[in-house]
């Protein structure tokens, strides 16, 4: 028996599209600023969660190509390694702006909710 299309909820589909478009517009300035730094390859969709939730760890991972910094048997945290790195101009401001965005409850509820769907 061939499957038949029974119902299409256009309202829900349009609402989801609008929500995702709204999220893209909110993220676009940050993504453009990151790509303009030319210190890492262009962001991929899979990078977005780490980029927005843990920006310091994200940039340490990208700038060190995944290598960890150890002192003896101790592994330094990404936050500490970030502070030690010679960072390109504009990176600190971008990270600060992302961290400020995280403090916005609207970001956590709307933007990030759309990012993880």
Give a written overview of the molecule:
By secondary structure, the chain is mostly helical. It has one domain (10-115). It contains 6 helices and 2 strands. The protein has helices spanning 10-37, 48-53, 55-63, 78-84, 91-102, 105-115, and strands spanning 70-71, 74-75. A two-stranded antiparallel ribbon has the order 1-2. A hairpin with a 2-residue loop joins β1 (70-71) and β2 (74-75). The longest helix is centred in the first third of the chain and has 28 residues, at 10-37. The radius of gyration is 19 Å and the shape is elongated.
Shape: elongated
Return the domain count: 1
Q: Give, in spatial order, the strands making up the sheet with the most strands.
A: 1-2
Low-confidence stretches: none
Beta-strand percent range = under 5%
Layout: helices, strands, pairs:
Layout: H1 10-37, H2 48-53, H3 55-63, E1 70-71, E2 74-75, H4 78-84, H5 91-102, H6 105-115
Antiparallel strand pairs: 1-2
Task: Give descriptors for this structure.
117 residues; mainly alpha; two-stranded antiparallel ribbon; 6 helices
Summarize the structure.
The protein has 6 helices and 2 strands, in the order αααββααα.
């Amino acid at each position: 028996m061939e499957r038949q299309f029974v119902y299409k909820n256009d309202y829900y589909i349009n609402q989801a599209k609008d929500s995702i478009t709204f999220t893209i517009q909110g993220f676009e300035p940050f993504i453009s600023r990151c790509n303009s730094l030319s210190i890492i390859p262009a962001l991929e969709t899979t990078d977005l969660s780490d980029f927005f939730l843990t920006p310091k760890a994200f940039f340490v991972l990208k700038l060190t190509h995944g290598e960890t910094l150890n002192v003896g048997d101790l592994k330094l945290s990404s936050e500490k390694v970030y502070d030690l790195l010679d960072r390109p101009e504009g990176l600190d401001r971008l990270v600060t702006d992302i961290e400020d965005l995280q403090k916005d409850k609207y970001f956590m509820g709307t933007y990030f909710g759309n990012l993880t769907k």
